[in-house]
Write a structure and sequence with these properties.
This protein is an all-alpha fold. It is built from 16 helices and no strands. The chain is elongated, with a radius of gyration of 24 Å.
Length: 324
């Protein structure tokens, strides 16, 4: 960059707040902006699923293939090619039960994102409280919280997800009774939350350890500020970057984990629309109807890739050294 261009850029940056500089760097990242729009599209699709379903004229629960003749053959598969796709059923029909795939996918996105968003918020808040407390308070607090994090991180997570979910569900419902959907949702959120905050907690502990010896923290202590005020006013604003970046990586991981639990039969079950349940059905019928697996599979890949790219862009926006 020639000196005149350098001076022009520096003049443009004068007087801008850190937030404005971060936003400016993010806007110049085309991949990040496109990824943000893709992620926003998924959230809007899930949020507006009931409205879209009403306008579309179908719902994810009605067994259209069993109600209307000529939609499914004698083996339970769609009669029309490409999984029964036509002007009436845009993404085709579900084999055997004959439910509409488009609305199943919409409500499945809604279910998965609501669960993942709830877990991400809870896990982030837990990591903020315990991670920053351990780093700032030190001593016994740091020792016990750090050992607690080490203990939880020693668990083989996928195995414990599968093992703990039925146990948590029995706390709400007698094992001899059918488990309501809300109990399953609460159980999934609780288990993913308890075993999903430790990585961010450890990151925040390390960042706080580096910050607590800085001059502005020492000045706050000398002025008589309480530990809570120092954490809230001095430390927390300086760890926003790792919180946001890690949260953008956590959410798609929780989406895929929740889907995996439903795929294994310990998460959400019939008739609740869910990505994982659609994968489970698709795995059974893919040889005869590959189309049914196509839409949820492509949707999840696009969502996870877009969210990970968004996380990379957010990290680069917070890091001036990565800006070119």
């Amino acid at each position: 960059m020639v000196p005149s261009e350098t001076r022009a850029v520096e003049a443009e940056l004068v007087g801008r707040s850190p937030g404005q500089l971060i936003w400016r760097r993010f806007r110049r990242d085309r991949v990040g902006v496109i990824s943000a729009f893709v992620v926003l599209f998924f959230f809007l699709a899930g949020l507006c699923a009931p409205l879209i379903s009403k306008l579309y004229g179908k719902d994810p629960y009605t067994r259209y293939g069993q109600i209307e003749s000529g939609l499914l053959n004698g083996f339970g598969y769609p009669v029309k090619p490409n999984g029964g796709m036509d002007g009436e059923f845009w993404f085709g029909l579900e084999p055997f039960l004959g439910r509409d795939v488009f609305t199943q996918l919409l409500y499945g996105i809604r279910t998965s994102l609501l669960i993942a968003l709830a877990v991400t918020v809870l896990a982030t808040l837990t990591a903020i409280v315990l991670g920053i407390a351990a780093g700032y308070l030190g001593g016994r607090w740091d020792f016990f919280i750090s050992r607690f994090i080490d203990l939880l991180m020693a668990f083989p997570q996928q195995l414990f997800f599968v093992a703990f979910l039925p146990i948590v569900a029995t706390l709400f419902v007698d094992p001899r009774e059918e488990t309501p959907t809300w109990v399953r949702v609460v159980s999934i959120i609780a288990v993913l939350w308890v075993l999903g905050w430790m990585t961010l907690g450890r990151i925040l502990r390390g960042a706080t350890l580096a910050l607590r010896e800085r001059e502005f923290v020492e000045a706050a202590k000398v002025s008589g500020a309480s530990p809570w005020r120092i954490i809230r006013k001095e430390l927390l604003p300086n760890v926003v970057s790792p919180i946001l970046v890690q949260a953008t990586y956590m959410l798609p991981n929780f989406v895929t984990t929740a889907a995996a639990l439903s795929f294994l039969g310990v998460g959400l079950v019939e008739p609740t629309p869910d990505w994982g349940r659609m994968f489970a059905i698709g795995a059974e019928v893919y040889e005869a109807d590959i189309t049914y697996m196509f839409f949820p599979g492509v949707s999840m890949v696009i969502f996870v890739v877009a969210f990970n790219l968004l996380g990379d862009s957010v990290r680069d926006a917070f890091d001036p050294k990565s800006h070119r």
